[in-house]
Design brief:
Blueprint: H1 12-17, E1 20-23, E2 26-29, H2 34-43, H3 55-76, H4 83-94, E3 99-102, E4 109-112, H5 117-132, E5 140-142, E6 151-153, H6 164-180
Antiparallel strand pairs: 1-2, 3-4, 5-6
Helix pairs in contact: 3-4, 3-5, 4-5
The structure holds zinc ion.
């Protein structure tokens, strides 16, 4: 699938969870191949360890992504987090020997990690920790537009769609459904 990754630039955990989207109620994989993964990896704004990912590692990364997806869905719905998924994220962080150190300015930190697969998985798992550790993530939402279903952070409380494009698509879709509805066309 040719993907343009227009939604990139949110929190790293959100960008990671957004490597699937929902089309016609079906989940579509956006990092099914190394090429697809590399196109995401090159464009994602957060600094990530440099690795040339192997197929087996990509399988592990998708498993980690699925854990992140379930946790973010639970958080966005205000539900309890699955304890096995929480353990899985924490195991991945511990296995990575990454350190959060003080950044150059007050209030900033940065992650130190190696350049191997455990480091990459660890940085992505720590992003999930960082996102879900925030006391208030009420602005984390799932976009209900057709062909989206992705996470975003609401910029204002009543924001429904992740982007103007999704809002337009949802309105066109609603209009088409109304037109096709027999109860509303005069019969
Ligand atoms: Zn959307």
């Amino acid at each position: 699938m040719n993907t343009s990754w227009v939604w990139l630039g949110d929190h790293l955990a959100v960008d990671f969870a957004n490597t699937v989207k929902v089309v016609d109620g079906r989940t579509v994989e956006l990092i099914g191949t190394r090429e697809e993964f590399n196109s995401w990896y090159e464009l994602v704004p957060a600094p990530l360890p440099h690795i040339d990912i192997r197929d087996s590692e990509l399988v592990s990364l998708r498993t980690l992504r699925d854990v992140a997806l379930r946790l973010l869905h639970a958080a966005a719905a205000g539900e309890a987090l699955d304890t096995e998924d929480v353990s899985s994220i924490n195991r991945t962080v511990r296995a990575s020997s990454i350190s959060r150190v003080l950044g150059a300015t007050v209030g900033s930190t940065r992650l130190e990690a190696g350049d191997d697969f455990p480091a990459l998985a660890g940085v992505l798992a720590s992003a999930v920790v960082d996102l879900l550790a925030q006391p208030n993530i009420a602005n984390l939402a799932v976009c209900p537009a057709p062909d989206c279903g992705q996470f975003f952070h609401r910029a204002r409380p009543n924001q429904r769609w992740c982007s103007p494009g999704c809002g337009n698509r949802a309105r066109v879709d609603r209009h088409r459904h109304r037109r096709n509805s027999p109860s509303e066309d005069g019969r």
